[in-house]
């Protein structure tokens, strides 16, 4: 997330530092209000009439994940948090669309394009499209002209591309696991992640199905906020009662 949100000046990732003057001009902020970090960034950008530039602060932080009393409850809290983030992102974009006329057109287009790419295409539509297109290709192989004129597209080639994309996705996930192990060197007090190799392997195998479920929950949340509107916009934090040191 940091690799996209910070370089693209979309989200300060909750922890940030700025001048007191800009903080006051932007109407301060409310740390207990979910998605307020992006809304505050938009307010600060409005106060200077251009997009604020976000730079990484190399400081170690502790970010607690969602938690529950048992596994099923953890899954529920995880899904609930995805729904919160997605609906919050939709609300943020609505806020930005209302305030956009006060920004230069170049800043408006740049922020909109990056925001839509990350929250809509990358987190929601991209992986769903990959999965659906692969299934559709298999159906074309099985049923042929009943669905589409297969002379227009090479189903075997498209299937190979889909499989190659899946392999690349798993390689990308493997890089994240490697980076995690490498980052242990910077953990305070010499702490280490005690997750076993076999469990890490299981997490790696389950990473893509997990992302696919994430996308489905996001799609549901987008549809929900489109139909129900402001009534589903909640800004309560996720449950972290069961986290232990």
TrEMBL record:
Keywords: Membrane, Transmembrane, Transmembrane helix. The chain crosses the membrane at residues 116-138, 158-180, 201-223. It comes from the Eukaryota. The keyword Membrane applies. The keyword Transmembrane applies. This is Uncharacterized protein. It comes from Pristionchus mayeri.
């Amino acid at each position: 997330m940091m690799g996209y949100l910070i370089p693209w000046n979309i989200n300060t990732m909750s922890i940030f530092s700025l001048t007191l003057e800009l903080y006051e001009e932007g109407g301060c902020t409310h740390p207990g209000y979910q998605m307020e970090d992006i809304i505050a960034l938009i307010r600060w950008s409005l106060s200077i009439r251009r997009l604020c530039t976000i730079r990484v602060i190399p400081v170690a932080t502790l970010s607690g994940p969602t938690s529950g009393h048992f596994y099923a409850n953890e899954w529920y809290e995880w899904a609930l948090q995805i729904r919160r983030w997605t609906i919050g992102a939709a609300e943020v974009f609505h806020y930005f669309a209302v305030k956009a006329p006060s920004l230069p057109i170049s800043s408006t287009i740049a922020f909109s394009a990056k925001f839509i790419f990350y929250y809509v295409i990358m987190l929601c539509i991209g992986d769903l499209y990959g999965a659906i297109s692969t299934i559709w290709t298999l159906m074309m192989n099985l049923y042929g002209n009943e669905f589409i004129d297969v002379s227009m597209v090479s189903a075997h080639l498209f299937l190979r591309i889909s499989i190659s994309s899946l392999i690349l996705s798993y390689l990308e996930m493997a890089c994240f696991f490697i980076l995690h192990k490498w980052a242990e060197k910077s953990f305070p007090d010499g702490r280490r992640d005690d997750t076993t190799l076999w469990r890490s392997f299981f997490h790696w195998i389950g990473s893509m199905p997990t992302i696919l479920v994430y996308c489905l929950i996001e799609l549901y949340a987008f549809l929900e906020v489109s139909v129900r509107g402001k009534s589903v916009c909640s800004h309560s934090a996720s449950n972290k009662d069961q986290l232990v040191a």
